[in-house]
From TrEMBL, chain A:
Lineage of origin: Bacteria, Bacillati, Actinomycetota, Actinomycetes, Propionibacteriales
Keyword flag Glycoprotein: no
Record keywords: Transferase
Name of this chain's protein: 3-oxoadipate CoA-transferase alpha subunit
Pfam family, one: CoA_trans
UniProt key word Lipoprotein: no
InterPro entries given in the database record: 3-oxoacid_CoA-transf_A (IPR012792), CoA_trans_fam_I (IPR004165), NagB/RpiA_transferase-like (IPR037171)
SMART domains, sorted: CoA_trans (SM00882)
UniProtKB/TrEMBL annotation, chain B:
Record-linked InterPro entries: 3-oxoacid_CoA-transf_B, CoA_trans_fam_I, NagB/RpiA_transferase-like
Record lineage: Bacteria, Bacillati, Actinomycetota, Actinomycetes, Propionibacteriales
Name this protein carries in UniProt: 3-oxoadipate CoA-transferase beta subunit
Keywords attached to this entry: Transferase
Pfam annotation, one family: CoA_trans
Family of this protein: Belongs to the 3-oxoacid CoA-transferase subunit B family.
SUPFAM superfamilies in alphabetical order: NagB/RpiA/CoA transferase-like
Entry's Gene Ontology molecular function annotations: CoA-transferase activity
Coiled coil: none
Domain of life assignment: Bacteria
Amino acid sequence: MVTIAPDPASAVEGVPDGATVLISGFGPAGQPYALIDALIDEVGRTGAGDLVVVNNNAGNGETGLAALLATGRVRKIICSFPRQVDSHVFDGLYRARRIELEVSPQGNLAERIRAGGAGIGGFYTPTGAGTELGEGKETRTIDGRQHILEYPIHADVALVRAHRADRGGNLVYRKTGRNFGPIMAAAAKRTIAEVTEVVPVGALDPEAVVTPGIYVDRVVVTR
Amino acid sequence: MTCEHVDRGALNRDELARRVVRDIPDGAYVNLGIGMPTVVADHLDPAKRIVLHTENGMLGMGPRAHGDDIDPDLVNAGKIPVLERPGASYFDHAQSFAMMRGGHLDVAVLGAFQVDARGTLANWHTGERDAIPAVGGAMDLAVGARHVFVMMTLFDREGRPKLVPTCTFPVTGLSCVSRVYTDEAIFDLTSGEVVVVETFGSTVAELRARLEVTLHAPG
């Protein structure tokens, strides 16, 4: 059952040491800044570390995901596109060998997360076959084409930015801010969503719900 | 097919983009890669009803947004603010890449470090030891789009050819590129050979002298 949390701090309470944390967003769009800030405070308070973070990127500027990386509590990041003009926090940690990097082609990353939420044990994909990113992976020729085996990503926690929620945890998103939100919400043991507004049950058009409330554990309203 | 020689000098980025647009069929679903291919969006003819896909989860992407039209929740694959066209739709990342991998996109226009004679593409990593690799959706587009067009300069800043017998940079996808649009010439790779379709700055003989690939020029 979904809980409507009074503030981001109580929404992120209980992220364990060594947790795998899915964080939605494609660059700043759909990035749950309030929940990330709360998580930074939370790991500062509890001392939890060794986190594995999954996002498309590795942070921009000094805020959000970049600020989380700067705490040194993230052991590893799994992403498709770490290097950007303003990814200097990650770049510094990586060059100092203070963070592990797993690069996954973007579609494989998305499908691995989807598979995690959907109970799929793995899948064969042509993406990455014959490249460095396919090295060491089981391969199989299907319909005359080389495929590689990719495994699902399961997570302890997902931090997701959505647009609106109802009190049952149903979520709708806004424009390209949707990106990884729906698949991440499904792939974690505990999904925490930040939204601009929580509306009564029945106020969202059931045909328009993108993430059904079954996937959502905690919701918090942020600016 | 004959090779068209137009002695107008090498094409600039906008001229090349207009030339790429000529080969995109009416009503096509198209993905434009980051960098030079993004310019193609500025030269689309509305009458052709081309629908742009952006891998972060949208069909019906419009042009770049400015001023009050900028919406932080509406960006393209390069994280640049854009507008939406009437009839646009939004979807999550798994759906977006299913469209790509599933063969639903008609054309992807990608930039490249290198393309080789068999259509193998290298565009994600220079392979330098201290370089941070970043692949994004390049590998998915390379294997998934029905037609992969490459848009690039024919030579790098040091004058080395980017159309090569075999890629030396880490590859993005094997035998996936059908056409290569460059400032100097257009090459078709669909027959398994490098066929010069059109030249701009140099003649075929001049290109033969500067490239290590075997060029076929019909007509």
